[in-house]
Amino acid sequence: SLLLTISVSCNPGCYNGGKCVEPDKCSCPAGYSGPQCEEAACDPKCRNGGHCIRPGVCSCPYGFMAPDCSPICSMQCLNGGSCTAYNQCSCPRGYSGSQCQTAVCQPSCRNGGTCILPFFCACPSGTYGSTCEHHICRPGCLNDGTCIDKKCVCPPTHHGDSCEKGKPFCMSINKTKQKSKIQNFP
User: What single-letter DSSP state applies at residue 42?
Assistant: First the structure.
């Protein structure tokens, strides 16, 4: 029996453990590709300017980290924020700040109110409303009085701190025209 060996050559040679299977054609091991098995494959792919240097290993530029060269934020992005560039958070609606740590209220809280959650103001004593825009009069305004700047503004028919006092009515007769007229006295 005669054994015949045929030798094939690849020029240039096969890299990274590749085998020459036909003239100038390499069979590459898992994780490598290219005509000479010179290209490493990374899954997930290297992002942000990173390069795959061996299977599954990215060489990343400063500010980005393996395995896929995602951005580094040395402080964690809070409240659902995401790290989009080196030490830079992208904040969801309703938050701001370098770490998305600050709740945003639009319109702003008024009268000393504090924005504690997105679009939610904590109101100081004596105020209420979605932006703390209303004042509370103590005691409350009576007889259709309206609280403005912590004071009751009374209708023409009442007076007092809480509009609790009715104004006396007086009836006068105009003798020349013989008509009755109601007049308010303070």
Answer: -
> Which amino acid would we find at residue 40?
A
Full-model pTM: 0.53
Cα atoms in the 13 Å half-sphere on the side-chain side of 47: 14
| pLDDT tens digits in sequence order for the chain, 186 residues long | 555 556 778 888 999 999 999 888 999 999 999 999 999 999 889 999 999 998 989 999 999 998 899 999 999 999 999 999 999 999 999 999 999 999 999 999 999 999 999 999 999 988 889 999 988 877 788 998 888 877 889 999 999 888 988 887 655 455 555 444 555 444
Domain 1-41: top CATH class? mainly beta
Selected from 2.10.25, 1.10.3470, 2.60.40, 1.10.10, the CATH number assigned to the domain covering 138-186 reads 2.10.25
